[in-house]
Amino acid sequence: MRKLLQLVSAAALIATIVPSVMFLTGSLDLSQTKLAMLIATIVWFIATPLWMGQPPEQLEHEEVVL
Amino acid sequence: MADDQSQPTGEFEREPVTQRSLLGFKSFIGMYAGEHCAGTELMLGPLFVAAGVSAYDLIVGLLLGNALAVLSWTLLTAPIAVRARLTLYYQLEKICGRKLVTLYNLANGVMFCFLAGSMITVSATALGVWFDFPMPGLNDVYPNSVGWVLAVLAIGTAISIVAAYGYEMVSRIANIAAPWMVLVFLAFGLVGLKEFIDVNNSQINSLSDLWHLAQTSIWKGGEPLEGQVKFTFWYVTFFAWFCNMAMHIGMSDLSVFRFAKYSWYGIATAAGMYVGHFMAWISASMLYALQLHNDPVNTDVLPGPLAYKACGIAGLICVIIAGWTTANPTIYRAGLAFQAIVPNKSRFAVTLFTGAVATIAGMFPAIAMQLLGFVALYGLLLMPMGAVVFADFWLLKRLGLQPYYADHRGLSFNWAAGLTWFITLGICLGLVKSGIKINGFEPFQIWFVALPGWFIATAMYIALSKFYQQRTT
């Protein structure tokens, strides 16, 4: 689960910067860029607190409980 | 700019850090990269443009100035830190005595309050986008609308209450937000660059095309805006070098690097300098240059609207988080500094009081709008004590004098250190006021004077120690 969350966070980070790169190259307009960055931001702040700063064993325990 | 939010606390306050508690190189990279991507970067970048900086002066000045800052940490701060492995405060107490350290705490706390105030100002500009109240202009000194006062009050109160309860939660949010925030800062620059290309109908096919655009449209140089000092190469270089002077030459980061295995870990500060004080400043300055390009009359330096135009709500969130996560620990630290002066008061009450002072300071836009000068003053104020630590550690014993003299003699106020601090500051401020010109250039402006000041302080501490130790031994 921890690895999956880390993958989601990594994807969110990439999705935070890629829209502005695409805007620079003319592949996205500014409103699309802003929307994509907002979605990436939401995903980052939902996924990352679930693993960053959490001890791995606590996550494992929660998985068992769930 | 940054505060010392990531300093390890609660351990080894009055004893050397043990070998088992040392941290790896990566810890310092992460700490500095996150710490120096703060809310104030969104003010400082635009203020360079307001100061009429040119492309060459900005880019090369920042490259050189940040390199000098990294070298200062690596060659001045870290070598003492890994040998003594003490906090700055404990080391100062051993050199200066408890009463002089209390005075140092007071000066540090007051400057922290104003710094936190400017961070609250930055966050409040984001609320202005949502609530559309009049916001302060570049040369405003006093608050200019009820909406502005209420916005600063709301953010300042919230930050102060959280700081009073302890900032562990905000510290965690800061750590989580750091990687994302760095990328949003980068996005500011990319979006700003694209908009510049579009408004100029430029074709960028090579680096020389990009450099041409930077020189002719983004950082054109020329006269500064009204009320601002013209910044050229040496101004940018010295500002980048000295803006964290309190931390490196002033030795505040002894408390951080006492956990380093080797002194070369000081180069980890490059992560903070070249992410925060290079990329972030350049990105933020591009957004402001674009605003001026589109509307030369609109000189307002307002991070909220600038970020919103570039990156929408994600940009606004970045402004709020960048301001909040740095103001919060700054208020907490200022509270701790003040509590050392009034130990019978609770930390909760002192932090709330500190937050109130910072909030009131944040209502006055003059501090944030004149941040270039304020930051230089902050470094200058604490620099002489860094010189005292340096001379005490490396030179006194070799000159036949007693280091850690207050500790050795049981003094509460080492007059050699105290007078070094006061007289150096007096000389430096006198030089700034003198307006002395050499070939039409003022070498003793607030941005430069700390360099001769450090040598004055070092020499004075040695001379005064010789006199003082002979009299009191």
UniProtKB/TrEMBL annotation, chain A:
Transmembrane regions listed in the UniProt entry: 35-52
Domain of life: Bacteria
UniProt keyword terms in alphabetical order: Membrane, Transmembrane, Transmembrane helix
Keyword Membrane: yes
Protein name (database record): Uncharacterized protein
Species for this entry: Bythopirellula goksoeyrii
From TrEMBL, chain B:
Keywords on record: Membrane, Transmembrane, Transmembrane helix
Gene Ontology molecular function terms on file: cytosine transmembrane transporter activity
The protein's name in its UniProt record: Cytosine permease
Superkingdom of the source species: Bacteria
GO cellular component, one term: plasma membrane
Membrane-spanning intervals of the chain: 58-82, 103-131, 146-166, 173-193, 232-250, 262-286, 306-327, 348-368, 374-395, 415-432, 444-464
